[in-house]
Design goal:
With 154 residues, the protein is of the alpha/beta class. 34% of the residues lie in helices and 29% in strands. It contains four helices and seven strands; from the N terminus they run ββαβαβαβαββ. The strands form two sheets. A five-stranded mixed beta sheet has the order 1-2-3-4-5, with helices on both faces. It has a two-stranded antiparallel sheet with strand order 6-7. The longest helix has 16 residues. The protein is globular, with a radius of gyration of 15 Å. The protein starts with 6 loop residues before the first strand and ends with a strand.
Length: 154
């Protein structure tokens, strides 16, 4: 059908200062734009948390140029004071074109939404100011278990 994005978005508060957006379907340009509009709407309502985890485990198809556009959404969110983290890409990221993979590698990434939420809420609770520390961008070949890089040879 014309005008439909083919993407599903569901938002939930996963913990103090952590919002979880579950994405399902095809991640194409209209889907990334829908995600960006959702983030903008939350910001306009004053409901922007410190961390937003975008769970991509339900995505069944990634469009390379759209994934590159997702990098711009991540950068804009950071400029607005929101740390946007990706979760659930797993080994599927290796199937994307190189520019799209490079975008994902610049993002903070977790193997699953559950690991991301657990790590981010623990980091927030573990510091007096609530700022916490979170992992930096994932490097190619890293897998994260409990928020810490793990050697791929194990």
């Amino acid at each position: 059908m014309a005008g439909q994005t083919g993407i599903g978005l569901a938002v939930e508060t996963a913990g103090p200062g952590v919002r979880l957006i579950r994405v399902s379907g095809r991640l194409d340009r209209p889907g990334v734009e829908a995600l960006a509009r959702m983030l903008d709407a939350q910001a306009r309502c004053g409901r922007t948390p410190g961390h937003v985890v975008v769970d991509l485990s339900g995505v069944n198809a990634f469009d390379g140029p759209a994934t590159e556009r997702l990098g711009a959404v991540v950068a804009r969110s950071r400029a607005e004071g929101v740390r946007l983290h990706l979760a659930g890409c797993g080994g599927r990221a290796e199937l994307l074109p190189l520019p799209a993979r490079q975008v994902l590698q610049r993002c903070s990434a977790f193997p699953s939404a559950e690991v991301a939420v657990r790590t981010l809420t623990a980091a927030r609770a573990g510091t007096a100011g609530g700022a916490g520390t979170v992992p930096g961008p994932r490097r190619a070949g890293d897998d994260r278990a409990g928020g810490r890089p793990v050697s791929s040879g194990t």
